[in-house]
Each structure stands twice: as structure tokens, then as C-alpha cells.
Amino acid sequence: MWIGMVLAISFVEAPLKFRAPGVTLRIGLGIGRLVFRALNVFEYVFAVVISVALFTHETPTSLNVALCVAVGALLTQTIAVRPLLSRRTTAVLEGDESRRSKAHVTYVALEVVKVAALVCTGVVLVD
Asked: What is the model's pTM?
């Protein structure tokens, strides 16, 4: 479920919402702020539940490493990168559309890392 939500929101909904008729940059950013805040809450719930389930049982090191990478990417996104994106979003919503945010590229790169780690987690679990 975790990987499905990340793929659906980060790689489908987020870019497509800006192509919808009538959705301006300001509206899209406002929607994105709400959607990603909700996604991150669900991600933390998934991370805690999965971590408790896996780390209270004997599991392969590869599984533990993959899950730690996914959780680490989530933590980095929400603690280090999202505040930068939030400041940029606030500036844009207040009318400052002069510069692009490099933090966005970092956030997307961490999404790719997280998805890869979750795929690895799933593969090891199926094995």
C-alpha cells in the first residue's frame, strides 16, 4: 500500500494536477501542500507498523536495510526538504514566482530512492 500511494501521488497526481484546466500554479501548490502532508502522515503510519512487525521478528539483514533506506528517505524528506519546499510554496502563494526551488529536485530524488527501497523490501518479503 505504501509504495502504491507514493507512486500514485508523487508520480501521477502531482504532475498531472498542473495540467488540469483552470488549475493555476497557486492552486496546484495549495492542493499539493495538503495532499503531501496527508501522504506523509500515512507513510509514517506504514513505516511504524512495518518496522514494528519486522524488527520484532527474525528477518534477513537485506530486508532491514531496505526498510531503513525507505524510512531514512522519508525522514530526510519531511525533516530536511519539506520545510524548504514549504517556504518556497508560501513565497509563491504570496506572489513571488521569480525563482525555482532546487529542493524540489532533491525531494523527487528521495522519492525515487524510497520507491526503490520499498520495491526491494517487497522482493525480499516475497522471497
From this structure: 0.90
